[in-house]
Write a structure and sequence with these properties.
Blueprint lengths: L34 H4 L6 E11 L2 E10 L4 E8 L4 H14 L7 E4 L3 H4 L1 H9 L3 E4 L9 H13 L9 H16 L13 H13 L1
Length: 206
């Protein structure tokens, strides 16, 4: 391979981000992969998950909440650990930015952060229903998995990340400026999330 000028692509070390081996209560799987059926309008279904980002200074963790209707990331947080604080920060960003109703469902895996009393208390405060994937079934939260795959393919895996602060800034810019504001999706008429939401809002107002 070296003589031919070829180099193998090394697999990145896998980092577990879901701790579903806990005694906390688990919510039923309301969504059951029927994302489109529950996302007929904005703020009807948000999906959320956590992923890891490797840097030379150690791991970073990203939690995001994505509106299944428009594919827009409505809240996110990038932190040094994947504790409950990161999830709550991302949730609070989403709640500040969106006008929600009691029709909203938040779908996640069975991770301890999402099963915690504190997180459930926040959902109850805003009359948000909770749905959880089955244990170990990534397809039950495929929309969130798809977002992370896009992030890693189009940003993270294109270079080696050295400093955590620079990595956080790059992720923030990619989500806010590119993904939400420019990246097109075939599932929403080849529009970006912001454009799609603006179009549907104007159509409903007409």
């Amino acid at each position: 391979m070296k003589k031919a000028g070829l180099a193998a692509v090394a697999k990145r070390k896998y980092k577990v981000t879901t701790d579903s081996n806990h005694q906390l209560a688990k919510s039923p799987n309301i969504v059951k992969r029927q994302f489109a059926d529950f996302a007929k309008a904005p703020n009807r279904l948000w999906v959320t998950d956590i992923t890891y980002i490797p840097t030379h200074q150690g791991w970073l963790y990203l939690c995001m909440f994505l509106d299944a209707f428009s594919r827009k990331v409505v809240g996110f947080s990038v932190e040094d650990n994947m504790g409950l604080g990161m999830v709550n920060e991302a949730l609070q960003m989403a709640l500040r930015r969106r006008q929600i109703t009691s029709e909203l469902i938040i779908h996640s895996d069975q991770g301890s952060q999402y099963a915690s009393y504190n997180f459930r208390e926040q959902l109850a405060k805003f009359e948000i229903s909770q749905s959880m994937s089955r244990k170990g079934d990534c397809w039950d939260n495929s929309m969130a998995e798809s977002f992370f795959a896009t992030l890693k393919r189009e940003l993270i895996n294109r270079q080696t990340w050295t400093r955590k602060d620079e990595t956080k800034a790059a992720i923030t810019e990619w989500i806010e400026q590119f993904y939400n504001g420019k990246r097109r999706h075939s599932a929403i008429g080849n529009m970006c999330p912001v454009q799609y939401e603006n179009l549907t809002r104007n159509t409903q107002a007409a």
